[in-house]
Amino acid sequence: xxxRKQIKDIVEADIQIALxxxxxxxxxxxxxxxxxxxxMNKSEVDKIIKEYKRLxxxxxxxxxxxxxxxxxxxxxxxx
Length: 79
Hints:
3 helices
């Protein structure tokens, strides 16, 4: 499955759950039977993918390996 579709499905589902919870909490407003649907823009999904790839690249770097060992602080300075 394409990573773009996976991210879009996850985010839309999360937003839809939040919308449904809000509607239940606040009570039904508007026309009876009216349903709100969450949609996500392709450019927003691309931003998430870009950030994900940046984080993965940073994690795989030499500095990332050193951070995993706990030899540097959160700013990358030696302890």
